[in-house]
């Protein structure tokens, strides 16, 4: 096996892993702030990216404005889901499975809406840069460098936000102990709405970053959700750093499975290893601290 | 404006099932035909282009006075890419609506289920699939509009060995349609003696196949066969500077896929049936009519749909507008020169397409150009 192939497999695995991680980060943010599994997260990423594509291809907007609009729409949509639906379920003391069913259903709805408005085709956004770098024989696109940089920026930003800002601390408190938070004057409902807005923004960022590389289509939401969820759970669901570790682990497992075992067994091998990891460390790779809020 | 065009077609699809009635001016009793197409679901990518071809053919025939002076009335059903739905639609068309013939279905599974209902009634069915299972050879009223996968595999290797004159071939294929073609490539290779230096697979719906592409690149093939319904592998191969020619089957020879390929849509060869930018003489009328109606160029799926309706119309004209469905089937069972190719529905594979039916095209910076090569010679 040549070094070039190994290097390319690692580069691809890390790139794909970062994509899973970006989606997982958003899911972790929503779980951290609401204790809900957001099964429509991949579709929010698609909505954000598809909106930007529409603005670039049809409205002929400059890319930066289209990207801003994509983020705004996903954020507003996610916020409306909370205000219009999640809040009502909370008021009726709905159980966790009801929330899961709600987001699964909304995922299908958003997917159908994207199909109706944007059609069946894959669409690409312009990349942030067109340079191609060769490292140990592996080809790495400039967009990958951007993804690495932005993922690192988001990760550090979230860490600082949750640790050092009153708003971030209030969001966490409202999620971990809603009644206790309410008695200290925290507006729990507002905090959960803010969590959904932040989650929507994160989803859009993930979708917008990957669209120059893999192309957005109405049907890619579920696969993003699934891989992002696996990344988040593998790392430790409430710890954003966990999503990053989990995502890169999955990406590398997939990629190295193709090289050393078989491309036909890629998912089987990667998911089997994930099962083993979860049995060995059921709280995720980053351990129990992640479950308690990182 | 690709998006707005698609929105229209999707909207059209959502209105199905629909009855396409002849325009005013036809006093004679219409001849009722059915169509079962996958306008929604995974098969819609090919079902919608077929729908355009079918509707245009009915319109063109009716504008020319119909069949023996009687217009066609078309009942269009969407099976949602589901074979169970397809058989329900077929039962309705055959036993309640009393159609003379059925155009479609789009997908192989639906073809099998509809054929099971229609063939005993000897109602002609014109599916947009190639003959698959052995049992389908017994269904003599199911006339296939597309080649078998065996023929598709031969068409690819004909070009590789006789035009490109190389035998060092890698294959990148998906886990569904591509898997079947890969099996056929191995079967027919006894004739061509190609050396498959790599064969890598991607799962349907995969968003990235760069690692598989890198494995293929490491074997330094002279040509890569990319078989499946996705633009992703084309992009990934080019992103890692895989500069060898890529070759693909007719499933990806569409403008939709070319748009999705982006900058990768260059130096890619297709074994298909219609290059509308440079049509063969027998294809020109269809291409002009289609372009005038839709302001876009047709590809193989639209042409096969146009041919399916015209082949049925020719059968009805031959048997007589009041003939029984069985008599119409008998009349269809013979040679038919279409816009896509020359068919012979009396052939053992119920299609009669041959290697010489294929047209080869090459994408050069996103534009299809015809390659002057005839297979099977």
From TrEMBL, chain A:
One GO cellular component term: plasma membrane
Gene Ontology biological process terms from the UniProt entry: amino acid transport
Transmembrane segments: 6-31, 67-86, 98-118, 144-162, 196-221, 241-261, 268-286
InterPro entries, A to Z: ABC_transp_permease, BCAA_transport_permease
Predominant place of localization: membrane
Compartments (UniProt record): Cell membrane
Pfam families, per database record: BPD_transp_2 (PF02653)
Domain of life: Bacteria
Keyword Flavoprotein: no
Alphabetic keyword roster: Amino-acid transport, Cell membrane, Membrane, Transmembrane, Transmembrane helix, Transport
Membrane topology of the entry: Multi-pass membrane protein
Molecular function (Gene Ontology), one example: transmembrane transporter activity
Family under the similarity heading: Belongs to the binding-protein-dependent transport system permease family. LivHM subfamily.
Name used for this protein in its record: Branched-chain amino acid transport system permease protein
Organism: Allorhizobium borbori
UniProtKB/TrEMBL annotation, chain B:
InterPro entries: BCAA_transport, Leu-bd, Leu_Ile_Val-bd, Peripla_BP_I
UniProt xrefs under Pfam families: Peripla_BP_6 (PF13458)
UniProt keyword list: Amino-acid transport, Signal, Transport
The Leucine-binding protein domain, residue ranges: 30-349
Gene3D superfamilies on file: 3.40.50.2300
Biological processes annotated in GO: amino acid transport
Domain of life, source organism: Bacteria
PANTHER family recorded: BLR7848 PROTEIN, LEUCINE-SPECIFIC-BINDING PROTEIN
Assigned protein family: Belongs to the leucine-binding protein family.
Protein name: Branched-chain amino acid transport system substrate-binding protein
Species this chain originates from: Allorhizobium borbori
């Amino acid at each position: 096996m040549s070094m070039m192939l190994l290097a390319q497999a690692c580069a691809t695995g890390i790139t794909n892993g970062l994509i899973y991680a970006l989606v997982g980060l958003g899911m972790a943010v929503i779980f951290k702030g609401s204790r809900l599994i957001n099964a429509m997260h991949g579709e929010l990423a698609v909505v954000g990216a598809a909106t930007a594509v529409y603005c670039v291809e049809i409205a002929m907007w400059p890319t930066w404005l289209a990207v801003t609009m994509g983020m705004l729409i996903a954020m507003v949509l996610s916020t409306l889901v909370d205000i219009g639906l999640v809040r009502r379920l909370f008021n009726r003391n709905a159980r966790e499975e009801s929330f899961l069913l709600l987001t699964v259903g909304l995922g299908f709805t958003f997917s159908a809406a994207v199909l109706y408005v944007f059609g069946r085709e894959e669409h690409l956004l312009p990349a942030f840069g067109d340079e191609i770098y060769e490292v140990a024989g592996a080809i790495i696109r400039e967009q990958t460098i951007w993804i690495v940089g932005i993922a690192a920026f988001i990760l550090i930003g979230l860490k600082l936000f949750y640790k050092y800002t009153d708003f971030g601390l209030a969001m966490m408190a409202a999620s971990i102990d809603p009644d206790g938070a309410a008695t200290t004057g925290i507006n729990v409902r507002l905090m959960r709405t803010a969590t959904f807005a932040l989650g929507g923004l994160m989803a859009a960022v993930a979708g917008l970053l990957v669209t120059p590389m893999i192309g957005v289509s109405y049907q890619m939401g579920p696969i993003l959700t699934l891989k992002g969820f696996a990344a988040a759970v593998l790392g430790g669901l409430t710890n954003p750093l966990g999503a990053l570790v989990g995502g890169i682990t999955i990406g590398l497992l997939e990629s190295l499975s193709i090289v050393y075992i078989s491309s036909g067994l890629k998912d089987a091998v990667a998911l089997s290893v994930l099962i083993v990891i979860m049995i060995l460390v059921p709280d995720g790779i980053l351990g129990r601290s992640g479950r308690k809020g990182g | 404006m690709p998006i707005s065009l698609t929105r229209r077609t999707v909207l059209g699809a959502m209105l199905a099932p629909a009855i396409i009635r002849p325009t005013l001016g036809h006093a004679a009793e219409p001849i009722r035909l059915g169509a079962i197409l996958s306008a929604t679901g995974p098969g819609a990518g090919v079902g919608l282009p077929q729908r355009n071809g079918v509707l245009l053919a009915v319109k063109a025939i009716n504008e020319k006075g119909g069949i023996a002076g009687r217009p066609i009335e078309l009942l269009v059903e969407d099976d949602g890419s589901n074979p169970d739905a397809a058989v329900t639609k077929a039962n309705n068309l055959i036993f309640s609506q009393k159609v003379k013939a059925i155009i479609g279905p789009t997908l192989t599974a639906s073809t099998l289920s509809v054929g099971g209902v229609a063939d005993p009634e000897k109602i002609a069915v014109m599916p947009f699939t190639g003959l698959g299972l052995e049992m389908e050879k017994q269904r003599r009223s199911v006339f296939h509009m597309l080649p078998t996968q065996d023929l598709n595999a031969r068409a690819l290797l004909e070009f590789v060995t006789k035009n490109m004159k190389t035998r060092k071939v890698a294959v990148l294929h998906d886990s569904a349609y591509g898997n079947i073609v890969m099996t056929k490539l191995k079967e027919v290779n006894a004739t061509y003696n190609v050396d498959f230096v790599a064969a890598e697979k991607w799962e349907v719906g995969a968003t990235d196949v760069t690692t598989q592409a890198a494995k293929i690149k490491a074997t330094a093939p002279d040509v890569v066969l990319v078989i499946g319904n996705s633009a992703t592998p084309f992009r990934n191969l080019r992103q890692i500077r895989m500069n060898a020619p890529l070759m693909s089957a007719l499933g990806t020879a569409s403008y939709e896929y070319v748009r999705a390929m982006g900058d990768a849509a260059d130096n890619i060869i297709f074994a298909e049936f219609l290059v509308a930018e440079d049509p063969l003489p027998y294809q020109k009328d269809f291409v002009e009519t289609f372009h005038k109606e839709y302001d876009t160029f047709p590809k193989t799926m639209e042409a096969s749909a146009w041919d399916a309706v015209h082949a049925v119309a020719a059968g009805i004209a031959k048997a007589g507008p009041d003939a029984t469905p069985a008599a119409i089937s008998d009349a269809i069972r013979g040679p038919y020169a279409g816009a896509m190719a020359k068919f012979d529905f009396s052939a053992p594979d119920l299609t009669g397409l041959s290697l010489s039916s294929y047209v080869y095209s090459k994408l050069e910076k996103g534009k299809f150009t015809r390659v002057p090569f005839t297979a099977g010679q």
